[in-house]
Amino acid sequence: MRSFVIGITASLALTAAAGAGDLTVERLFDAPDLQGPSLRQPRFSPDGMLVSYLRARDDDPQVFDLWAYDIAAGQHRLLVDSRSLAPSVETLSSEEEARRERQRTAALRGIVEYQWAPDSHALLFPLGGDLYHYDLSKPASEAVRRLTTTESYETDPQYSPKGRYVSFIRDQDLYAVEIATGAERRLTTGGGGLISNGVAEFIAQEEMNRDTGYWWSPDESHLAFARVDESPVAELERFEVQAGGFRVLSQRYPAAGAANADVRLGVIALDTGGIAWTDLGPTDHYLARVNWFPEGDQILVQRQARDQKRLDLLSFPVTGGSGRLLFSETSDTWVDLHDDLYFLPRRKELLWASQRTGHNHLYRYGYDGRLKGAVTAGDWDVLGEWQAPAVRGIDEKRGRVYFMATLKTPLERQLYVASLDAGSQRAPRPLTSQDGWHNITMSQDTRRFLQVYSDPMQPPQLSLHNSTGKRLAWLIENRLDDQHPYAPYLDRHVQPEFGTLPADDGTPLYWQLYKPAGFEPGRRYPAILLVYGGPTVQTVTRHWSERRGGQTAQLFTQRGYVVFAIDNRGSGGRGQAFTTALYRHLGGVEVVDQLKGVEWLKKQPFVDASRVGVFGWSYGGYMTLMLMMQSPGTFAAGVAGAPVTDWRLYDTHYTERYLGMPDENAEGYRQSNVLTYAGALRDRLLVMHGMADDNVLFTHTTLLIKELVAAGRTFEVMPYPGSKHGALSFRETGIHGWKTILDFFDRNLGAAK
């Protein structure tokens, strides 16, 4: 379950009429974007001369074009207008729709991903089901070249390491096109139906943060690829209800305790087309990660055990066969997957992240698997954005590594530099210091970095810095001046308060609170608990973000609500012991900690304790149900969006990581099941769910409905025909969904007194 904390925000219409400076639901989906210029994927060209990025159109914040910034000239220019190549209304293939759903980009259109050619002379991007190559050396009118023209939908395009080829997936097989000649070559056969070649299976995409299923060797002589056979996976019939009818889909969904897909790793020799197969060992494992050694003669494979308590790193020759175990990570709970694995070819070493001390830190290993020493240490974590790598650059020549960490506070991400040889004796040096959230992209030579910075009072800014942290230029300053889209609402913008309160075991829990705009001492206001609560995710951060206490909270507060969030044990950013507190029982310690926060909230003199609501989506929807059912009477009303209700119906990799196998932890599954507590519901409940959700299946809600009806409990349901897990991300369903939520809270909590 990739985190789905609500990313679209809405106004809460209380009984009083909205003021001139109040946001509306419709405005949130209109152009221009309220946070200012909306950017995605800022990157340096490999030579460090240009900065590329995707920018939302001024007339539609969900459609993106490709831009570049010339560092020497200090100028921005539009490279590709997406609407000049494809219609604004794009019909995705079912495979691409599913892929974007996994990546949480399903609501975006235009150019949503791109890559640089290794020589910095071109860029590659998919659009409308085809692949395009942009040649920077040509005039703008001649720069764009269409590489594919088939009826099929080409996905997951990649440049080969030397830039000779572009590879991609078509109809579940792997292809490559030679850029110079346009000659196309099919690299695998047999794809179709239950067999896929070069494709990341559902579990890999949704739960393992692995979006590809193939990997080029550095010299372009070989391609490693995953062959996925879904025939062992149980087939279920899912009714995908649309507005004008329904269709019955047969979906291979690996539910907890059941069989996973069979995944093999093959290696294609490009000169002959022959395929050598590796021996990954017992079938009950996951192919987690694949990397090539810099010399191109070996493959480094991360193999994760089914119970996720062991992660093996093995090397395989290009000729396939058996591998050699380099080292393993083990845990009594689970070993987290990550992408912080890097080669240090000068030293013949690996840089690797591990939680073996209880906090995530960096270590050096020899190519032979022997531990050379720790690079960082302490009661803090080397940690990036959720599921993003922490390491942002390596200067092996100077013996330096640049990384994000929580050394200052778990509420922020700051950039640090450390010596590869310092070990735990020398503290890393900070390169950023301003309170808030820093997201860093470094140039390949580590001489410069891009910084996307925000805090609760500043929407995202993009700036260019040298390796010491000195700002060289603003690329997008995004000042909150009179011309900013958010300017009409700035007078009522509320700065959040942060604090901690102790859990039952004394562990400090971070909270975030917004008082209503125009707050008047002596008045008592209704309150909303915004909850996610799921493993590894943080909701309390110093961050301007729609999903981290930014506009969502502001819009509620501008309509007279107190907004509160607290990160329970099980959340991320606080070390292994904090996160694993929920092991083998979901909806346990998380509920206890959230209720602790609500107990504190109700004691505040400005809160009406009789009018507290709760809202969450995905795991937050699950938490909403568990809070209301385990503590009836605590909340006056709650909205549960796309909730898991029975973990036996959710997927293997996520569920088993935290609960183990159903047959050996039956009591844990029972205690973690919403349906166990359904009869205790007393308070007003609204359940919302997309009827075509292929992640948290709509079956979870139908089972809940059946149980609540049997128990004689009254409630409300808002289903969305044709919508998947991200229903509130789309304009039509988003506007309707938020108005439904607001109306529900208005009816059941009322206006501020």
Give a written overview of the molecule.
The protein has 753 residues and is mostly beta strands. Helices cover 14% and strands 35% of the residues. The protein is built from eleven helices and 45 strands. The chain has an eight-stranded mixed beta sheet with strand order 38-39-41-40-42-43-44-45, with helices on both faces. Strands 14, 15, 16, 19, 20 and 24 form a six-stranded mixed beta sheet that branches. Strands 1, 2, 3, 4 and 5 form a five-stranded mixed beta sheet that branches. Strand 21 (285-292) and strand 22 (298-305) form a beta hairpin. Helix 6 crosses helix 7. The longest helix is centred in the C-terminal third of the chain and has 19 residues, at 731-749. The two termini are 40 Å apart. The model is unreliable at 5-20 (pLDDT under 50).
